[in-house]
């Protein structure tokens, strides 16, 4: 396991804007994701939700949220140790229009009600 990975996972558990649900966890419990259909309550507004699928370190998610405060941004990735960077930065800045979901993209429909997401995409993998 990578350096400090367990510490990052532990710290992410304390961030109120980070949700960590794997396919096996949802399937095993039969639970539905508690924010499904309620994201406007979480963000405290009815602003459009934009997903960044495969957000990696989350820096693009955070930058977009800073540029467009009239939108809510949710970064999605399965690699929590990478996502930690954006999650920590947005937490430290007190950003209210950013969230992160650590999960498999294949089950993304389990996290959102129909028409709850306005836009989705993934950043270019040619960025450095």
Indicate the structural class: alpha/beta
Radius of gyration: 14 Å
Count, helices: 5
Mean pLDDT: 86
Largest sheet, described in full?
A: 5 strands, parallel
Number of domains: 1
CATH 2nd-level architecture: 3-Layer(aba) Sandwich
Give the fraction of residues assigned to helices: 25-40%
The CATH topology comes to: Rossmann fold
Specify the oligomeric state: single chain
Write the element-wise H/E pattern from the N-terminal end onward.
Answer: HEHHEHEHEE
Strand percentage: 15-25%
CATH class category name: Alpha Beta
Catalogue the unreliable spans.
124-128
CATH superfamily caption = Vaccinia Virus protein VP39
The overall strand count is 5
Distance between the termini: 24 Å
The gross shape turns out to be globular
How do the strands of the widest beta sheet line up side by side? 1-4-3-2-5
Structure, explained:
- With 128 residues, the protein is an alpha/beta fold.
- It is built from 5 helices and 5 strands; from the N terminus they run αβααβαβαββ.
- The protein is globular and about 35 Å long.
- It starts with a helix and ends in a 7-residue tail after the last strand.
Topology (SSEs and partners):
Elements lengths: L4 H10 L3 E3 L2 H7 L9 H5 L5 E5 L5 H9 L4 E6 L2 H13 L5 E5 L16 E3 L7
Parallel strand pairs: 1-4, 2-3, 2-5, 3-4
Helix pairs in contact: 1-5, 4-5
């Amino acid at each position: 396991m990578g350096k400090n990975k367990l510490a990052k996972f532990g710290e992410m558990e304390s961030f109120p804007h980070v949700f960590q649900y794997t396919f096996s966890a949802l399937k095993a419990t039969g639970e539905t994701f508690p924010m499904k259909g309620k994201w406007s309550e979480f963000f405290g507004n009815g602003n459009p939700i934009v997903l960044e699928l495969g957000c990696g370190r989350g820096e693009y998610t955070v930058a977009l949220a800073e540029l467009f405060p009239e939108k809510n941004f949710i970064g999605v990735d399965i690699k929590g140790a990478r996502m930690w960077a954006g999650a920590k930065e947005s937490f430290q800045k007190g950003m209210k229009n950013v969230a992160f979901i650590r999960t498999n993209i294949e089950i993304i429909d389990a996290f959102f009600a129909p028409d709850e997401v306005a836009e989705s995409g993934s950043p270019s993998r040619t960025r450095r």
